[in-house]
Amino acid sequence: MLILGNMIPFVNLTGQRDAYRDELSAAEKAVLDSGCYIGGPEVKALERELVDYCNSGAGNGGAGPETQAITCASGTDALTLSLMALGVRPGDEVIVPDFTFIACAECVSMLGARPVFADIDPETLQILPSSVESLIGERTRGIIAVDLFGQCAPYDTLVPLVRKHGLWLIEDGAQAFGASSGARRACTFGDIAITSFYPSKPLGCYGDGGAVFTSNARLAEKVRMLANHGSKERYLHETVGMNSRLDALQAAVLRVKLRHFEDELKVRRENARKYDDFFADYNAGLRASGGVDGAKIVPQKIAEDNTSTYAQYTILAEKRESFIRVLDAAGIPHCIHYPMPLHRQPCFESDAGRAENNADRASRMAVSLPVCAFTDVDFIIDKLRAAL
After folding, report:
1. Which of 107, 174, 373, 375 is 20 to 30 A from 312 via CA?
2. Is residue 288 located within the same domain as residue 241?
3. Judging by DSSP bridges, how do beta strands 210-214 and 192-196 pair with one another?
């Protein structure tokens, strides 16, 4: 991730800590005084609260009382554990979106399987079901759908597709815990779902952290065992696993932040609405003003019936380099998510000869602006208005 500009924080974590300082300090002190730093009541309580949160918006067919949350050391570990629990082996193929962070493809490759890159919708930037179906072959075992930038992938199409072909589905909700599609919250779709608690995520801790969600009791038991060195009973290892745990201090921080999470999401969505209105006015006035080389700047489309966490507020700028020069001159921080599609990364160079696709075009145009609940978006928009 490329971060540019330093006058305004891209994610204002210090502002968030100042707002909850007393609650966070009390929670942190309680853990440190308890002497219980790995596992224990804080981690168990967080796992219950994560499931309760998902259930609170699940609606019919969503997460149920049997759903389990298994916390772990990172979102990347959550993906790896999910793939291991689903039995991914060398020679298998797993379809992943071409335009996203490398973690989903990386975890597939680390297990000896092959990631196969599906194209994206040019407006929502989510994995494109028609591209997925065209890539299904004899070695395909499943699909990882990423809830990119905070909105759910098109599960109304993807779920019937995987059932039709006898595949499994992982929902990568690393950027979207708190989002919804219809009456269901993110992390309730697919056979397994994951999220990340990396500090800059909408719900983030003070280090790495992640969680796996599933309503399949067999898969839940297997994930817990794999995350604990392949062991359900101390010093008895049924399989080769890994060491992936969320510590109690991070769990305590997340429990505090979870209490304020819905209020923060309301502010994020209001911030996004303000940006939407500004860029709608900007595009409407291009003919008169000329703008940035007369080029449109279009926000990521939020699909009908979706709500987003706006993990990033991402726009597609036809003349991105010109727009970035404007942002730099105005002191507005920005990030490029992501500078190249996965199939063009050196580690996946065997696919580098493919024709240009929607993911290539998004990689040339996408740029993200600050949107967190502790960002003064009105101030940024005033700067944009003056600069554009």
Report:
1. 107
2. no
3. antiparallel
